[in-house]
DNA sequence: GTTAATGTTGAGAAATTTTGTCGGATATGT
DNA sequence: ACATATCCGACAAAATTTCTCAACATTAAC
């Protein structure tokens, strides 16, 4: 029973993103190189997160991703759901439904475990993880002249 | 995040075994055919469980497996450990140790989740799963003349 | 308008893990 | 001796996860 690297990548990338979220879009390649995650793989992941309502994207030059909502409003459970990473313990019930559900003696055990995990994932937000108690973070993008400078430096030093 | 079929097979097989535990050894092929688990695969699994101190084996004709200890003394956590199925959420810490442990913002989340799951697995015994509140079940094997009869019937009807 | 930076998508290759098989060795009750 | 079992290691098959690639769409900056 282990968490997929997809899920781990995602949380690290989202932590990275939200820790430098001053409303400027951050590019996938920036995050990927900082977090040492394959760029193209992270692109896929961010696509899922966007479709799942976790991220919003800004296409084109100087574009990138921003959080779709304030970090304290995004729970870990939502992130995993957006990734299509269901938290399943029994193959029973949640997946495709198991005909043995009634007789299967392990059913209630897995339900109990799942309930416990879900509880934690539902009550932990991205802000909790980053450790910042961000109270207000406007998701609107305010065109900011500083970003260009900062981005340029990061890009040069990484050479990507 | 899902439980392996190995773990599920194991719990079903152990439930089966302990629900008919009248101290007679039960053969792998009996359990496998009742539970619809590949015989040779279950052999492997039972080997692990034996080496992990969950099962005891009786070799030779009319042999089989019995619980090494009373069912109410075997926890699910022990079973998973015997199978070499660690309950890991972060790739961090438990697996091979991750150098980022200090900086990694997700560390405490996964530790919390793992702690919660472990708690449940540690406090749930095989007896709980089977639903029988077995208070006393002598692990010693008492050679019982009935077993042969019962086994013969079961084997014939399955035809394995 | 051209260009460069960036997101978007789908197909599929590569790697890893899980699941399952096989052949034979060893042990033991009858 | 024989039939029934466990035991063991290596391997085969399948599934899943991880990662790459190629082509395309969109936008900012020049």
What secondary-structure arrangement, pairings included, does this model have?
2 copies of one chain form a homodimer.
Chain A: H1 5-19, H2 28-35, H3 39-51, E1 55-58, E2 64-67, H4 76-83, H5 107-123, H6 126-130, H7 146-158
The structure holds a DNA duplex (30 and 30 nucleotides).
Number of domains of chain A: 1
Sheet-strand content of chain A, in percent, reads: 5-15%
Give the oligomeric state of the chains in this entry, treating copies of one chain as homo and distinct chains as hetero. homodimer
SS-based structural class of chain A? mainly alpha
Q: Nearest-angstrom radius of gyration of chain A?
A: 18 Å
Number of helices of chain A: 7
CATH class membership of chain A:
Mainly Alpha
End-to-end C-alpha gap of chain A: 36 Å
Order of helices and strands of chain A: HHHEEHHHH
Low-pLDDT stretches of chain A are 93-97, 132-160
Of all protein chain pairs, which has the greatest interface, and how many residues does each chain bring to it? A-B, 36 and 35 residues
CATH topology of chain A: Arc Repressor Mutant, subunit A
Q: Average the pLDDT over all residues of chain A and give the rounded result.
A: 77
Can you give the helix content of chain A as a percent range?
40-55%
Largest beta-sheet characterization of chain A:
2 strands, antiparallel
- Widest sheet, order of strands of chain A: 1-2
Shape of chain A: elongated
Number of strands of chain A: 2
Give the CATH H-level superfamily of chain A: Winged helix-like DNA-binding domain superfamily/Winged helix DNA-binding domain
- Please name the CATH architecture of chain A: Orthogonal Bundle
């Amino acid at each position: 029973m282990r968490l997929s690297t997809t899920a781990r990548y995602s949380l690290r990338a989202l932590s990275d993103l939200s820790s430098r979220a001053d409303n400027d879009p951050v590019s996938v390649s920036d995050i990927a190189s900082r977090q040492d995650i394959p760029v193209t793989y992270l692109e896929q992941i961010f696509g899922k997160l966007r479709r799942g309502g976790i991220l919003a994207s800004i296409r084109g030059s100087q574009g990138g991703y921003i959080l779709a909502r304030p970090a304290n409003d995004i729970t870990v459970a939502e992130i995993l759901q957006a990734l299509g990473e269901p938290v399943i313990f029994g193959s029973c019930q949640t997946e495709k439904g198991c005909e043995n559900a009634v007789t299967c003696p392990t059913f209630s055990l897995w339900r109990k475990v799942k309930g416990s995990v879900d509880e934690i994932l539902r009550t932990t937000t991205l802000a909790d993880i980053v450790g910042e108690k961000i109270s207000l973070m406007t998701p609107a993008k305010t065109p900011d002249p500083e970003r260009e400078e900062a981005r340029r430096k990061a890009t040069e030093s990484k050479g990507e």
